[in-house]
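Work Package 3 (structural annotation) set out to generate three-dimensional models for the target panel prioritized at the project kickoff. During this period the team completed the workflow that converts sequence records into discrete structure tokens, so that structures can be stored uniformly alongside our sequence database. As a representative example, we reproduce one entry of 98 residues exactly as it appears in the project archive.
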Amino acid sequence: MSFDAQSSLFGEGGMTPPRRNITPDLDAIRRRLTGLLDTLRAAESEMPLSERDLRMWQTVLPNMTKWLPEDEALCMRSSFASELERLSLAARAGISAA
């Protein structure tokens, strides 16, 4: 039995899974990112995210914003970076004041 005869047992496409067209819900992305930014903005001087969650968002947020219009994506990334910087400075100021 040849390889061709064996592979035909799985149909024309072989064992390749069917492709799905996945288009994310832009409103859901906006809600999720806005909620994250609101959480960061509400924090006065202490990071409200665990180290693990912070690392995750530092990776995920830029990828999620790729689905948004470029100007909106840039604004989200800039706001995120600004809030992280603000919280970092506040934490350093708190340490030096103690």
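The mean pLDDT is 87.
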